[in-house]
Amino acid sequence: MSRAKREIIRRRCRCIRRNRRIAAGFSMALLAAIVFITFQNPRVQAEPTGACKYYADVYVKSGDTLWDIAQQYITDECGSMESYIREIKEINNLGVCLQAGQTIVVPYYADKRVADNEQIPSDSLLVGIG
């Protein structure tokens, strides 16, 4: 084999090796970008609960406390009892005491596929869907 042919073959081999390295580097960068984007936002992977936030008008009876009313409506989506009561107070601009005969708005979560009246006490009145 002549010297010129060997030089051409050597150049081709170098070119092929360089192209393989570039392709491997590009593939690794693409894979890293996909992994980064996938794990960057964990909410993307979370399953939706299917629960919607609703609001109910609750008529306060004599002897009712905010704690008692909150216990009837709280679900896992609401968080802690303290944060749920705080939300009820903020929605209704409440102080410390409830008054018999008062009507307050109470948020709650329910599955979209279940009828509203199956999720809330029967003495409540639905006022809206959130």
* Broad shape: rod-shaped
Low-confidence stretches: none
Structural class: alpha+beta
Number of helices: 4
* Estimated helix fraction: 40-55%
Series of H and E elements:
HEHHEHE
Number of strands: 3
**Which architecture of the largest domain does the CATH hierarchy give at level 2?**
Roll
Report on the biggest sheet: 3 strands, antiparallel
Output the strand order for the largest sheet.
2-1-3
CATH fold title of the largest domain: Membrane-bound Lytic Murein Transglycosylase D, Chain A
Rounded mean pLDDT is 80
Tell me what you see in this structure.
This protein is α+β, with helices and mostly antiparallel strands and 130 residues long. Helix content is 48%, strand content 18%. The protein has a three-stranded antiparallel beta sheet, sandwiched between helices. The mean pLDDT is 80.
Annotation keywords:
single chain; 130 residues; alpha+beta; Membrane-bound Lytic Murein Transglycosylase D, Chain A; three-stranded antiparallel beta sheet; 4 helices; rod-shaped
Give the topology.
Blueprint lengths: L2 H38 L10 E9 L6 H8 L7 H12 L10 E9 L4 H4 L5 E5 L1
Antiparallel strand pairs: 1-2, 1-3
Helix pairs in contact: 2-3
Give a brief description:
It is built from 4 helices and 3 strands; from the N terminus they run H-E-H-H-E-H-E.
